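In this section we walk through a basic example: taking a raw amino acid sequence and producing a predicted 3D structure, encoded as discrete structure tokens. The instruction is simple. Fold the sequence below.
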Amino acid sequence: MPHDTIGMTYKYNPFAAAYPSDRGPIGKIFQPVIDYRTYLRAGHMALMFPLGIAYFVFFVTTLAVGGSMI
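The resulting token sequence is shown next.
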């Protein structure tokens, strides 16, 4: 009986904590536009993309040079 302790089950909703539903339909649509977490996540992804490319280039170069020197 996983996740069923008092007779009620919990259904995971990934948007429950990020965007509260105490606003009207227009507020629900435009809430991500004015929420600071949207821009925080966009900035995080903007930083992770060049870092990911740099890691990839470093490891491919390291493996190619190390493999050829063996």
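Looking at the output, two observations stand out. The chain has a mean pLDDT of 82. Helices lie at 25-34, 36-69. In the next section we compare this with other chains.
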